[in-house]
Write a structure and sequence with these properties.
single chain; alpha/beta; seven-stranded mixed sheet; 10 helices; 7 strands
Length: 234
Amino acid sequence: MVKGYFADDATRAERVQQLFDTIAPRYDLINNLQSLGLHHHWKRRFVALANPDRSDHALDLCCGTGDVSFALAESGTQVTGLDFSPTMLDHAKARDELNRVDFQHGDALVTGFPDNHFDIVTIAYGLRNLADFEGGLREMHRVTKPGGRIMVLDFGKPSFTPWRWAYFTYLKWMVPVFGKLFCRDAPAYAYIHESLEHYPAQDGVDKTLRKLDCRKVAIHRILGSAMTINYGVK
């Protein structure tokens, strides 16, 4: 990992895809371990804020193994899950015994969906991995119907300096230990800290949503902004 998974060059997208293909078999296990199982609660809160119902059509970008997609579908919502990692999608499809979600392979920066198409567009733990986070938000905005909800769940950057130091220390040094123990690949789990280094997190997302003239823009902070949910209405 000479340049790191998130170095800004022409091969970044390919390297990030390879990363997620590599960690897909143990992705859910590591998420449970590193968050002490709390990520399930955060995702439920995220979906509750989206307030889906049976008349909605939702797009879940960077859907991974499908947690948010399945939670949206529980309300009877029509859900499309999009991810650029074929291996992640294979795991999502294997979990979808009832065929509740239309899982598709694609790029969150260029989804190919029509303008003003979805009532809800979500991305959980994916925006910071994109080569252009603002481009990702513009694409989310483009495919969202007027009045539709645009939502981002991701790692945040706490403003309280001691807590920020402790949190980033955990991400930098402890999370890779889980990768070493359970995937024999510590660098693959160093990606979380690496992906946050140049990502403006909740405040940058908030600023971009406002630039896009979204309404009801808000930041929901979890654990002192260790996790955050950004919300906006087109």
